[in-house]
Amino acid sequence: MEARLDDLRAAFSGRLLTGPDETAPFLTDWRGVWRGEAFAVVQPDTAQDVAAVVAWCARTGTPVVPQGGNTGLSGGATPDATGRAVVLSLTRLDRVRSVDPLNNTMTVEAGCILQRVQEAAAEAGRFFPLSLAAEGSCTIGGNLATNAGGTAVLRYGNARELCLGLEVVTPQGELWDGLRGLRKDNTGYDLRDLFIGAEGTLGVITAAVMKLHPAPAARVAAFAAVATPADALKLLALAQARLGAALTAFELVSDTCLGLVLKHFPGLRPPLEAPSPWYVLVEVTDLIEEARGAAALEGLLEAGFEAELVSDAAVASSIAQSQALWALRENISEAQGHEGKTVKHDISVPIPRIGGFIAEAEAALAAQFPDNRRVVFGHLGDGNLHFNLSPPEGDDGQRMVGQQEAINRLVHDIVDRYDGSISAEHGLGVLRREEAARYKSPVEIGLMRAVKQALDPQGLMNPGKVLS
Ligand SMILES: Cc1cc2nc3c(=O)[nH]c(=O)nc-3n(C[C@H](O)[C@H](O)[C@H](O)COP(=O)(O)OP(=O)(O)OC[C@H]3O[C@@H](n4cnc5c(N)ncnc54)[C@H](O)[C@@H]3O)c2cc1C
Question: How far apart are CA 468 and CA 452, in angstroms?
Fold first, then answer.
């Protein structure tokens, strides 16, 4: 054991952690849902050092678990219980290598915290749109490895659509420089797209070329009451037709969600006078001036009132008010956490079918698991819902957790019938690995296995994640 550690230590420069106190934070996810063991945790300083570590692992038959900010929700960054793996933490690869405003790109290392990437873009007078509640901790490498979504996908796309090129260490420990800032490049198989969303099972991302956008002059948000998700969808269609690219977010929030946020965040105020079963949070950006953005949003809401889709609305008149409206949406997960145990589904269905899906899934849950509270919210503009459950108030949630498998099956079967996905944003990791195998065709699973076998024949890259 000591000799192997010395051998690994000599193979690269950077930190090697072995003591239980030092390694503990890397052996569990941020919520403490998954827990594992590792032979060692390494924190290389450069892409060359990452390559050296992975080459050492390939030579010695040691599994590698890449880890970024460790904010993932599917257990992908946690090693298994055998203690055989090396956890490869990328957080010291945190340099912004370059920003090119003329090409509208930036080249960043995988361990850069997402918020730092946004700030570096802003310092260059540009906008990097990927945004999620974990942005103060998650890394751009983790964002790419999970193809993260977030609140601006409707306008700018998810992590995949924001990436032009990658630098990757292969499972054999070779360094592939694919850091091309090209919008057009049809020279064979798109290797970049293979590594994005692969959750570290095909290689280690060490750097990326990301797309930048013009910095908006103004972002204006409104909170609007709608009677049903079907009405919210009609309002979305109206918004897309009227606002085009100015529409940057369209989020659905149920009254149960709003109630939880107001209960657990007493500093936040109800946005509207009367409650409504459902709300939408709409955000418009304008490249020229705030007044134009506000006028466009007010015009949409008036059209929504006239079409009897909107019964009440509040438009933010300052950045602080916009942030307060966003806080009502962004704190839902945390507020739900304060209510005890949760059962969660991160699903997507084709956008026009979302209303039908919610109605059917809610009715089925109400019939079979009537006590649990349904906590439904999400990125309506992307067809992505967080379709969650909490136990009845005052209940410790043990009964609901005991029913988790049956609840998952019920919801995922309906998702499947609606031609949807059982993991829209959070990847498969270990959490949804078996579920994915259940709903994907044997052909699709066979192709995935063939890709894994071709790139990682030793099966050492993040074993047991995505594929069993
Ligand atoms: C409060 C909260 C809100 C969230 N909201 C969203 C949201 O709106 N949308 C969304 O999509 N996700 C969301 N997430 C999930 C999570 O933040 C994202 O999945 C994020 O992209 C993970 O980044 P990370 O650096 O923390 O990756 P980690 O958790 O460290 O790793 C995630 C996966 O990527 C792999 N990986 C990490 N880095 C690399 C690398 N450099 N090369 C290869 N593989 C790598 C790991 O092995 C693992 O499989 C949220 C999480 C929290 C805690």
Answer: 11
